[in-house]
Design a protein that fits this description.
The chain is of the alpha/beta class and 247 residues long. The protein has 2 domains: 109 residues, Spore Coat Polysaccharide Biosynthesis Protein SpsA, Chain A (Alpha-Beta Complex); 115 residues, no CATH class. Strands 1, 4, 5, 6, 8, 9, 10, 11, 12 and 13 form a 10-stranded mixed sheet that branches. A hairpin with a 5-residue loop joins strand 10 and strand 11. The protein is globular and about 55 Å long.
């Protein structure tokens, strides 16, 4: 299996560090977030990785080259001309996954102990049992968040909700609101090859918007890892917390 690590973001929540550096190179106990995630997926046999770059792209490329990809074969997807968000960034790297049945995508600023082996097993089970053609399995938790993905009781994606503004977006509106299963997205997903066939977007867009478009006709499931550690290292205080959790 191959993987993509999304590292092109501006990291505005991590200012002032990101005024001069990319967020993927934030250090936690002597290792950058990018190094930690490359080594994390190596534990599950993934050594072929594409990393998209935009903000201080040269620093990320330099770190990868100087460290020989930390033991992995790392390909760069260059978005220096324009940051394409998560969905557009994956679409830009489409050719890299041309011959893959499935691959992993994760955000560079996430640290977790999620068992990818168990998530892959769950994805295979969902694929076998799904009533519709399946596109992706999304890692989620039950943590409190400002935005939730909404699934039905069968575990398939139906919509999205901003809990601050009450804005909602629906792929398949639920007839009974009591059947809604809100989950917090972890920024980690297993993608299937038909993702690109199902996608009807171009340019700059988020993976969440892509999923809401695709979920109208295809199955997208969740994998809950609420019993583990998930840390969004997006703010200075979370970097301090990460240092206490990841040695």
């Amino acid at each position: 299996m191959k993987a993509m690590i999304l590292a092109a973001g501006l990291g505005t929540r991590l200012k002032p560090f990101t005024d001069a550096h990319p967020k993927a190179l934030v250090m936690v106990n002597g290792k950058s977030l990018l190094q930690r995630n490359i080594e994390y997926i190596q534990d599950y046999g993934i050594y072929e990785v594409v990393v998209n770059v935009h903000h201080f792209a040269d620093q990320i490329i330099d770190a990868i080259e100087k460290n020989n990809g930390w033991g992995s074969n790392v390909t760069i997807s260059d978005e220096s001309d324009e940051v394409l968000e998560t969905g557009g960034g994956l679409l830009r790297a489409k050719a890299y996954f041309e011959n893959e049945a499935k691959w992993l995508v994760m955000n560079a600023d996430i640290l977790t102990d999620l068992d990818l082996g168990k998530m892959m097993e769950a994805d295979n089970a969902f694929d076998a049992l799904s009533e519709g053609e399946m596109v992706s399995t999304l890692a989620v938790t039950n943590r409190s968040t400002s935005r939730n993905l909404i699934f039905n009781t069968s575990g398939t994606l139906c919509g999205w909700r901003n809990n601050t503004t009450n804005e909602e977006k629906w792929a398949n509106p639920l007839k009974d609101p009591a059947m809604a299963v809100p989950k917090a997205f972890s920024g980690i997903q297993i993608m299937h090859a038909n993702f690109f066939e199902a996608l009807n977007m171009q340019g700059k867009f988020s993976l969440i918007d892509a999923y809401l478009q695709i979920a109208q006709h295809y199955a997208i499931h969740f994998y809950d890892h609420s019993d583990g550690i998930l840390l969004d290292v997006g703010k200075p205080e979370s970097v301090e917390k990460a240092a206490g959790l990841f040695k």
